[in-house]
DNA sequence: GCGATTTCTTAATCTAGGTCAATGCTTTTG
DNA sequence: CAAAAGCATTGACCTAGATTAAGAAATCGC
């Protein structure tokens, strides 16, 4: 018989995320859950501010966020859009307890599962299997960041925009266009021009 | 009494590298060494070619290398300079056995300790502690790649060049200047101009 | 439902950095 | 040791993309 529950199973997605990486028993998953904190935030909340120490890594159950750096002229560069099934945080700040270089801002009302430094270390001690899960996650993240760095230099803004649409077909419906410009590292005006030039063909 | 040896201890540096991450016993280090292969390569050797599958991760005992992407016009973008105490490889290709996006070319005669996929998995199985070592390595690598991506977009070429000199004061004596331009994502001519403008001040 | 704020577009002008080509200087290599 | 290859520099000219400004459209908050 199925357990009745007010809030469905808030761990369903994150468990599936883990299982895609390697098999976990019910017991292991329960232990994992015990280290997580469920949190709801309103649209436009600031999860992390440049200069602060990043206290949590956060898995998105539902919602949308953006990690970005604001330069001296107040222009920002989007490092990452995160939606359902993504993790948020500033790794450098989280692990070294140094001031973060990045801001994290929510673009929609968002539900998160959060883990702080001590909880993560305790989890890793209790279930060393998770070292591997997190290693693989970070490896994938590094590979995609390397690709993005190289693409950003090697290709034109129009090419990078086309590649972005292909890789993230659902992001444009969820975030304002000038954030996409800031992800591509171009001005909003120029992105508008690119879009218009494309239409003309 | 010290063991006499023709080739000193070729593991001295890599062991120190590991110990900076966490403590290891002599036995553990011996097991680790048993998975490594020592290799010498001549200057200009190609360790990995765009399109091939990356078969090894390589620790540099002595020497200098460059990882780069060559675009359709034959221009290249340097992803990484590696010298003593760095690791080389294309993570995405190594783990997923997909064609590599990058070339790795040696800039000096180089001595490496290499590990292939099967050996690395066997090492991780026998000594799961290494999951953590590699996780931490990859995290640091990701953090610096994120910074580089953002800096590349946010700052001017001259600023990025100054930051490069500060971060890697010894690289310019070991690699031709046009490789540094390709790391910064600018033309060699423009780097030459930047250097000249700076002198003028 | 309406004013206020954000967002997007368009157009004129400007600039960081690219391209091309020529010259001299170092390294390699045979 | 000479010829060739690779490297750095300089200058003239070109272009992708930035900046500024202003109006139009969409969305938000009450």
Automatic annotation (TrEMBL), chains A, B:
<dbReference type="InterPro" id="IPR014710">
    <property type="entry name" value="RmlC-like_jellyroll"/>
</dbReference>
<dbReference type="Pfam" id="PF00027">
    <property type="entry name" value="cNMP_binding"/>
</dbReference>
<dbReference type="InterPro" id="IPR000595">
    <property type="entry name" value="cNMP-bd_dom"/>
</dbReference>
<feature type="domain" description="Cyclic nucleotide-binding">
    <location>
        <begin position="41"/>
        <end position="124"/>
    </location>
</feature>
<protein>
    <submittedName>
        <fullName>Crp/Fnr family transcriptional regulator</fullName>
    </submittedName>
</protein>
<dbReference type="InterPro" id="IPR018490">
    <property type="entry name" value="cNMP-bd_dom_sf"/>
</dbReference>
């Amino acid at each position: 018989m199925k357990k009745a529950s007010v809030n469905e199973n808030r761990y369903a997605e994150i468990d599936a995320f883990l299982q895609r990486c390697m098999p976990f028993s019910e017991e292991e998953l329960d232990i994992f859950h015990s280290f997580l904190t469920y949190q709801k935030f309103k649209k436009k909340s600031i999860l992390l501010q440049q200069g602060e120490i990043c206290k949590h890594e956060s898995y998105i159950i539902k919602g949308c966020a953006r990690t970005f750096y604001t330069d001296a002229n107040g222009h920002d560069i989007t490092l990452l859009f995160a939606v359902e099934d993504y993790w948020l945080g500033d790794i450098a700040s989280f692990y070294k307890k140094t001031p973060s270089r990045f801001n994290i801002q929510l673009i929609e009302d968002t539900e998160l599962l959060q883990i702080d430094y001590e909880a993560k270390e305790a989890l890793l001690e209790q279930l060393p299997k998770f070292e591997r899960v997190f290693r693989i996650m970070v490896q994938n993240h590094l590979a995609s960041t390397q690709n993005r760095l190289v693409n950003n230099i090697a290709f034109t803004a129009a090419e990078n925009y086309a590649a972005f649409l292909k890789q993230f077909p659902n992001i444009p419906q969820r975030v304002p266009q000038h954030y996409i410009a800031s992800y591509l590292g171009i001005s909003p005006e120029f992105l508008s021009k690119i879009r218009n030039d494309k239409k003309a063909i």
